[in-house]
Amino acid sequence: MKIVIPGGTGQVGTVLKRALSAAGHDVVVLSRRPGRQGEVHWDGATPGPWTKEIDGSDVVVNLAGRSVNCRYTPANLREMMDSRVHSARAVGEAIATTARPPRVWLQMSTATVYAHRFDAPHDEATGVIGGAEPDVPGYWAYSVDIAKAWERAQEEADTPHTRKVALRAAMVMSPDRGGVFDVLLRLARLGLGGPVAGGAQYVSWIHDQDFVRAVEFLVARDDLDGPVNLAAPEPLPHRAFMRALRAAWGVPVGLPATRWMAEAGAFVLRSDTELLLKSRRVVPGRLLEAGFTFDRPAWPEAADDLVRRLRGGRAR
């Protein structure tokens, strides 16, 4: 198959391109700064010569959007919104004007669309969309607005011959440098991998190889469209998540951090505490109902595998 991945130069795109290319597919990455074989320039907002890559392709997986690993200033939040919505609209316009449209368009979304909660997990049928929770920072609602606008841009695209799936993805854990697993493991190795703000908030995650397998599953299943949660079936509280990560590396102790300590650390790292403090308890209802099986459903075993691969050469 020919698979086009707009915004495919980040961590998730690297994971996906590597696996799909190894499986024998023709993978084209659309990038603002192409520099490798198989990468084609686009601006992420307007149609251009890149649209010919989509015409005649089989699958589009749009991952484009500004990284969330930044300070959530008004300017950065607006850039997050614009980069996601504009790129999704551009992909939709390209598909709509092709003579031979792809049969499926997988659009990256996020598990952040769901409400901050501890009491029950969110699946696609019963999950509560966030934005109105009490006692959370007001700007957290804007992250939900971004997710909703991102999905709406795909929904509104006039692509009647292309099936559309919104990937409500949790954190994708891979041993690649610079990814979320790399950052969390570095904290654990420095002795800073304890619970943050008590550690009761849930962490939703997915092993990189299960992420790829889920994408392949959704490509093959013509009966699945709309929002699909890409998350392992066993989210767990942050304190247990970090305990398992420390055990995988062999770090006996992790210093806890209060909320204000997390805020100070996030400021120094130019990141935001929402990534640590929001409770994301998300489960893959539709995937499981459709018969998908996870190779790494539980975090301790997944963390062991990621550490083993990192020590053996990261990407294997």
Automatic annotation (TrEMBL):
Organism of provenance: Streptomyces lomondensis
Family, per entry: Belongs to the NAD(P)-dependent epimerase/dehydratase family. SDR39U1 subfamily.
Highest taxon in the source lineage: Bacteria
Matches recorded under NCBIfam families: yfcH
Residue ranges occupied by any DUF1731 domain in the UniProt entry: 273-306
InterPro entries on file: DUF1731, Epimerase_deHydtase, NAD(P)-bd_dom_sf, SDR39U1
The protein's name in its UniProt record: NAD-dependent epimerase
Signal peptide region: none
Ranges where the NAD-dependent epimerase/dehydratase domain occurs: 3-223
